[in-house]
Design brief:
244 residues; mainly alpha; two-stranded antiparallel sheet; globular
């Protein structure tokens, strides 16, 4: 039995198991919200298929991104490279969300309504999967010393708590654009909490004293600001043309 458990743990880490648990919980949660909104069976099947394709594409992008910031991975065989690279959240999120929206449109599903109902499942999956980081020892937290006692800050616990609180906020407050809230709240949290993470992920842009995650957080926040500003820019241009 011990040999079997060791073999199982070696091939199926607790990190992967928690990610799978998070995916199942998020899928059930999202489907229940869709069914409560009277989506029929055919629509649910299409949305589920789109979500599955988007998730696996996001997971692949999340893994492959590390090949860019860790050049030494290129020397490894493909399967070993995939196992060694691990995951970087942001590339996976951007790929999965973009592809999910595209597939919903191609499948003639109401993109805005589906996102309104399913976005709270995103931080639910994220929060459960992050607990797996605690078990795996990655995203381990900066080493701190209090007197003679040294310990690593439990960063995954902090991030999971934030994400679960965000789930509750999205459910109870029901903002009109929950994806915008998620894409604002999480990068802000990640940018400032990164100092407690102490996890070097290589370099994205050289010569900048910010981590890879902080740089991507700023890029996403800049994108959110541009998105929010577009309607105001259009109104300004329209008024300017009328003034002429």
């Amino acid at each position: 039995m011990a040999v079997f458990f060791q073999s199982f743990a070696r091939h199926f880490s607790l990190y992967n198991l928690m990610a799978a648990l998070g995916l199942c919980a998020a899928l059930v949660f999202a489907l229940r919200r869709l069914m409560a909104d009277d989506f029929n069976g055919r629509a649910l099947h299409r949305i589920t298929a789109a979500a599955a394709v988007a998730f696996f594409a996001g997971a692949a992008a999340s893994n492959a991104f590390n090949w860019l910031i860790y050049p030494e991975l290129a020397t490894l065989p493909l399967l070993t490279r995939i196992r060694a690279a691990g995951m970087t959240f942001y590339p996976g999120m951007i790929c999965a969300v973009s592809l999910f929206a595209l597939l919903l449109r191609l499948l003639s599903q109401p993109v805005r309504r589906v996102f309104f109902l399913t976005v709270p499942a995103f931080p639910l999956f994220h929060g459960i999967a992050r607990i797996g980081c605690l078990f795996a020892g990655c995203c381990y937290g900066r080493e701190l010393t209090v007197g003679t006692f040294s310990f690593r800050f439990p960063y995954p616990v902090l991030e999971s708590a934030f994400l679960f609180a965000l789930v509750l906020f999205l459910i109870r407050r029901r903002p009109a654009r929950p994806l915008l809230v998620y894409c604002t709240a999480y990068p802000l949290f990640r940018f400032f909490a990164e100092s407690l993470r102490g996890d070097d992920r290589g370099a994205l842009l050289p010569g900048i004293s910010l981590s890879v995650s902080q740089q991507i957080s700023l890029a996403i926040l800049a994108g959110v600001l541009v998105y929010i500003s577009i309607p105001h820019i259009k109104v300004h241009l329209h008024c300017h043309r009328k003034g002429r």
